[in-house]
């Protein structure tokens, strides 16, 4: 009863209404849990509030857990400096073993406190109180406190740092962050925002100490379960077990269970990763593409886990540069996308088709729209209207990874009938990520986010001066769209938010600088001896509770 009383006292005013929506069949249990936890309830508390009793905990199989062992992961080992500038998940997955986040969004898209013990939002969701978990130490022995939290917020919101958090958290000014005491921080938002806890798990939001000087490889200090042992760009990264990590495992001893993690960079060739898995050189392949999935899904001793996601690939055009500064040219290129063909070629059909909006069917506020037809004749007519009656030659740049080369080849072939002569520039991944926001035409992978309002805030908004944000690779800025986004970010009721999103999706399809052909499933490929692994929709490697059954 103590848990139930506490839950009622702290409950946000919208949660009882949300419970009625659940009882009337308007939201699913998962949607109720997602929103209730975002508004400050624990998962256990939300279950209590919904059912009047606490859900029974799953039995802990302590006798099955073994300590020790090494997992080797095939991935990229990229150049790393300030974590707030991370723009790819590979480096994040390596350093998230050292540094943690204030929150964590789990495999089911439910966000829970992590380095925070809890949070509360006021009725209008424009004031948030963050309660910092006490008793946690960084791996250099210093205490983790609210002062560190404030330091990280200031880093994220500093234009000189260049973090994508600046665009994501454009609703918060550095002067509106208050350290109430050693373990409490208050955020006073310029406008209401329902996604604050979700945003705190955006991968550049990695927590470093207030003494951090800007290079994580030189100062690998965090609160996480592993310590950096070695980091050689493009070769390998090695992490070893931290003995005094703050979380306990099911066996009653401190996590993690594994002794060591080794991330090895095998280059761009998927065949090298497949061969390494088959030979036992690696145990795990990070974010395998569809061709890897097809090659390894039936291998003995290998488990393949999957999850539906909002992961996608933006076929993106710089709207501030010719010829894509003309909306007719942008529309013409979108008409040249044969979406089903592209999905079949690039991802073996394992996904759902998109209609040029970053909001996916897995998002709670998704608004279903007709899938645009392949229309090369319509494309030629638009090009002629835009002043290109004889067609248009353009260069498309992307990385040599996953689906991108197959997508580029598919677009080159289908766009030819629409009047586009596309020259392909397929770059090594490291080179593409150096220029991904600069090329006039490209294909960029965008990871899954649990709410449909998050990618638009990262990809299609401006900074405080009105300039395109750090991740606005298209430079598309639409005042009507941004106004609707801000409205959606403050709308708790899912159906009302979906109505706003219906308008946003139309604007994206009609005016934006990106085409979105499909959203993918993701796979997690790992040797069967490793237990506690699952496919995370954002491809996050969460190894703190993974163990080796053969250790």
Kindly describe this structure.
By secondary structure, this protein is an alpha+beta fold. Among the domains are: 2-51; 308-521, Dipeptide-binding Protein, domain 3, CATH 3.10.105. It has helices at 2-10, 14-23, 29-38, 43-51, 89-95, 146-156, 165-168, 196-199, 270-279, 290-296, 327-335, 339-347, 376-385, 404-416, 429-435, 454-459, 479-489, 494-511, and strands at 70-74, 103-105, 111-113, 116-121, 127-132, 177-181, 184-188, 226-232, 236-241, 260-264, 284-285, 302-317, 351-353, 392-399, 420-427, 441-446, 514-527, 530-531, 547-548. Strands 1, 8, 9, 10, 11, 12, 13, 16 and 17 form a 9-stranded mixed β-sheet that branches. The chain has a 4-stranded antiparallel β-sheet with strand order 4-5-7-6, covered by helices on one side. The radius of gyration is 23 Å and the shape is globular.
Considering the chains and any ligands shown, give keywords for the structure.
Dipeptide-binding Protein, domain 3, alpha+beta, 20% strand, single chain, 551 residues, disordered N terminus, nine-stranded mixed beta sheet, 30% helix, four-stranded antiparallel beta sheet
């Amino acid at each position: 009863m103590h848990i139930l009383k506490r839950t009622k006292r702290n409950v946000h005013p919208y949660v009882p209404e949300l419970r009625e929506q659940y009882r009337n069949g308007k939201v699913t249990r998962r949607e109720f849990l997602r929103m209730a936890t975002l508004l400050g309830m624990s998962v256990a508390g939300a279950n209590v509030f919904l059912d009047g009793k606490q859900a029974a905990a799953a039995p802990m199989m302590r006798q099955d857990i073994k300590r020790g062992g090494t997992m080797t992961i095939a991935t990229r080992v990229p150049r790393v400096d300030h974590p707030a500038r991370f723009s790819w998940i590979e480096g994040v997955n390596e350093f998230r073993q050292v540094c943690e986040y204030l929150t964590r969004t789990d495999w089911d898209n439910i966000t829970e406190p992590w380095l925070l013990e809890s949070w509360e939002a006021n009725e209008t969701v424009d004031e948030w109180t963050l309660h910092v978990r006490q008793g946690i130490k960084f791996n250099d022995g210093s205490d983790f406190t609210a002062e560190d939290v404030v330091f990280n917020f200031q880093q994220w919101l500093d234009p000189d740092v260049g973090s994508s958090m600046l665009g994501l958290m454009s609703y918060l000014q550095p002067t509106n962050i208050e350290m109430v005491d050693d373990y409490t921080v208050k955020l006073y938002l310029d406008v209401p925002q329902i996604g604050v806890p979700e945003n705190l798990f955006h991968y550049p939001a990695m927590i470093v100490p207030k003494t951090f000087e800007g290079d994580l490889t030189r100062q690998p200090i965090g609160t996480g379960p592993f310590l950096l042992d070695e980091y050689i760009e493009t070769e390998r990264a090695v992490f070893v077990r931290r003995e005094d990590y703050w979380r306990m495992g099911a066996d009653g001893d401190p996590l993690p269970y594994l002794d060591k993690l080794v991330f090895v960079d095998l280059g761009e060739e998927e065949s090298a990763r497949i061969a390494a898995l088959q030979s036992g050189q690696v145990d795990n392949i990070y974010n395998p593409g569809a061709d890897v999935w097809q090659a390894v899904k039936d291998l003995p001793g290998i488990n393949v886990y999957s999850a539906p996601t909002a992961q996608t690939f933006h076929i993106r055009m710089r709207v501030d540069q010719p010829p894509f500064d003309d909306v007719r040219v942008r529309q013409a290129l979108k008409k040249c996308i044969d979406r089903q063909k592209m999905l079949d070629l690039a991802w073996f059909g394992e996904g759902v088709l998109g209609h040029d909006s970053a909001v996916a069917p897995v998002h709670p506020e998704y608004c279903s729209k007709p899938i645009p037809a392949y229309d090369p004749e319509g494309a030629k007519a638009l090009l002629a209207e835009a002043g290109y009656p004889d067609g248009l030659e353009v260069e498309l740049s992307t990385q040599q990874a996953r689906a991108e080369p197959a997508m580029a080849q598919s677009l080159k072939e289908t766009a030819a009938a629409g009047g586009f002569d596309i020259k392909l520039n397929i770059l090594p991944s490291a080179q593409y990520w150096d220029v991904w926001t600069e090329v006039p035409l490209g294909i960029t992978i965008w990871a899954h986010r649990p709410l449909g309002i998050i990618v638009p805030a990262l990809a299609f908004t401006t900074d405080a001066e009105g300039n395109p944000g750090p991740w606005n690779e298209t430079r598309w800025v639409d005042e009507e769209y941004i106004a609707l986004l801000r409205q959606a970010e403050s709308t708790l009721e899912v159906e009302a938010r979906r109505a706003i999103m219906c308008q946003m999706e139309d604007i994206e399809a009609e005016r934006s600088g990106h085409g979105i052909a499909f959203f993918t499933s993701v796979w997690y490929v790992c040797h069967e001896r490793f237990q506690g692994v699952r496919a995370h929709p954002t491809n996050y490697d969460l190894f703190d509770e993974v163990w080796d059954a053969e250790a």
